[in-house]
Amino acid sequence: MSPPRSRASDIAFTATVKAIQDRLGSRAAYARMESGNGWQTTISPDLARFIQAQTSVFLATANAQGQPYIQHRGGPPGFLRILNDTEIAFADFSGNRQYITIGNLADNSKAHLFLMDYAHRQRIKLWGEARVVDDDGELMRSLMPADYRAKPERVIVFTIAAWDANCPQHIPQRFDAMDVAAALAERDGRIRELEAEIARLRAV
User: What whole-number distance in Å separates Cα of residue 70 and Cα of residue 59?
Assistant: First the structure.
């Protein structure tokens, strides 16, 4: 049974973590954060837009012995679906059939979602619990992205307990290949327009 929490950030800032923060000089700053708005526990409109734009997510779980595991899941924008102000769900596609995440969640529902937007150098961390839903075909069909070539096997529903946004420090800026291709196509189109205009002016 988890100890009671007085603040949302207590889910990560345990007594041990706070003692280390105090020893290394950062506790005062985080104490001010805790006494102010602190970490949020529901999905804000800005967070909703961020989640719905993602094409990649990392889901962390741990087994009954505490051994952690991180699994990557991806899909087209919108494959992460917001069910309500505390729940996110996605169709779990067929993969390598190791089922480590599913097994971990059977023993330990605690989970973490890590979302990274390299293009805008932004990351979001979400603490909570996850559950596997394998007997709701209607929900699974509703979460399946249109025209996406993947086989859904089950649904994973993540319930948020707290979330935090990090600063962009040390995040390398990277761009999705499709976004780069679209930008280059737009550039090439503009070059063709300018070349045609130059040719017309020379002819005059």
Answer: 6
Strands (E), the chain: 56-62, 68-74, 81-82, 87-93, 110-117, 122-133, 152-166
Q: Give pLDDT tens digits for 73-86.
A: 999 999 999 999 99
The CATH code belonging to domain 40-173 is 2.30.110.10
C-alpha distance from residue 6 to each of 70, 84, 183 (Å): 28, 24, 48
70 CB contacts (<8 Å, ≥6 apart)? Answer: 58, 59, 60, 114
- Indicate the burial class of 41 (C-beta count within 10 angstroms; 0-12, 13-18, 19 or more): middle
Nearest partner of 54 among 119, 111, 102, 101, judged by Cα: 119
- The string of pLDDT tens digits covering residues 26-36 is 999 999 999 88
pLDDT class of 180 with cuts at 50, 70, 90 = confident
d(CA 10, CA 145) in angstroms, rounded, equals: 35
**Which H helix or E strand runs over 191?**
helix 177-203
The pLDDT of residue 4 is above 60: no
Q: Where are the domains of the chain?
A: 1-39, 40-173, 175-204
**Three-state secondary-structure class, residue 80:** coil
Question: Would you mind telling me the total number of residues written for the chain in this entry?
Answer: 204
